[in-house]
From TrEMBL:
<feature type="domain" description="Small ribosomal subunit protein uS10">
    <location>
        <begin position="61"/>
        <end position="156"/>
    </location>
</feature>
<dbReference type="InterPro" id="IPR027486">
    <property type="entry name" value="Ribosomal_uS10_dom"/>
</dbReference>
<dbReference type="GO" id="GO:1990904">
    <property type="term" value="C:ribonucleoprotein complex"/>
</dbReference>
<dbReference type="InterPro" id="IPR027487">
    <property type="entry name" value="Ribosomal_mL48"/>
</dbReference>
<dbReference type="Pfam" id="PF00338">
    <property type="entry name" value="Ribosomal_S10"/>
</dbReference>
<keyword id="KW-0689">Ribosomal protein</keyword>
<keyword id="KW-0687">Ribonucleoprotein</keyword>
<dbReference type="GO" id="GO:0005761">
    <property type="term" value="C:mitochondrial ribosome"/>
</dbReference>
<protein>
    <recommendedName>
        <fullName>Small ribosomal subunit protein uS10 domain-containing protein</fullName>
    </recommendedName>
</protein>
<dbReference type="InterPro" id="IPR036838">
    <property type="entry name" value="Ribosomal_uS10_dom_sf"/>
</dbReference>
Length: 194
């Protein structure tokens, strides 16, 4: 019972354990002195070592969407600069291909089309990594304050789908691959079939 309590305390105080002793299978016999701050003058060592670790977000995407690309690009660059000033690591920033929307306005009380509009929805992303929880709240407040009218901000964890949507498909290459399949496939595939 004492051993499990000691292990839990040592897990909580990773910053105080000598890193050379962590590889051993037995419990570390020595614990180095914790880093003490001026505000910790009257706090006992065991209370300082039991402080929980600060939660950190691994990889987050700040996704900006809007109808004006110039505004989005300016907003994205401001968020990027503010994140760097705050000490948050910006991994990368990118634009995705525009989404084209066809919007139709109908005549009142009818089904006849009164007007038709072609709208482009642009998207910019800022990817931040290893963000402390306290800094994320401040960064989001700053991002909302900088956000221009008509634009939206979404924050989500990075996923594979977000990586794949960045790239524009090569239609000519896809057509050539389809023609190759229609003709019977490549030589390597023919050999496998035999």
């Amino acid at each position: 019972m004492f051993c499990t309590k000691a292990i839990n305390i040592l897990k909580l105080s990773r910053r105080c354990i000598n890193p050379h002793l962590l590889n051993k299978t037995s419990l570390p016999a020595t614990v180095t002195q914790c880093k003490r701050f001026k505000s910790d003058l009257y706090e006992p060592d065991y209370l300082i070592s039991m402080e929980p670790d600060e939660p950190v977000y691994d990889c987050l995407n700040l996704q900006l969407k809007g109808y004006d690309f110039a505004l989005l690009e300016a907003c994205q660059s401001q968020i990027h600069k503010y994140a760097e000033v705050m000490g948050i690591q910006v991994d990368e920033s990118w634009a995705t291909p525009a989404q084209q929307l066809k919007v139709q306005r109908y005549k009142p009380k009818g089904t006849a089309v009164d007007a038709e509009y072609q709208l482009n929805v642009y998207e910019r992303n800022v990817q931040v990594t290893d963000v402390p929880a306290w800094a994320l709240g401040t960064l989001l407040r700053v991002a909302r304050a900088v956000l221009p009218e008509g634009c939206t901000l979404h924050v989500h964890e990075h996923a594979i789908e977000h990586e794949e949507i960045r790239y524009v498909p090569d239609n000519q290459l896809l057509e050539l691959k389809q023609q190759l399949q229609d003709m019977g496939g490549s030589r390597a595939e023919r050999k496998k079939k035999r």
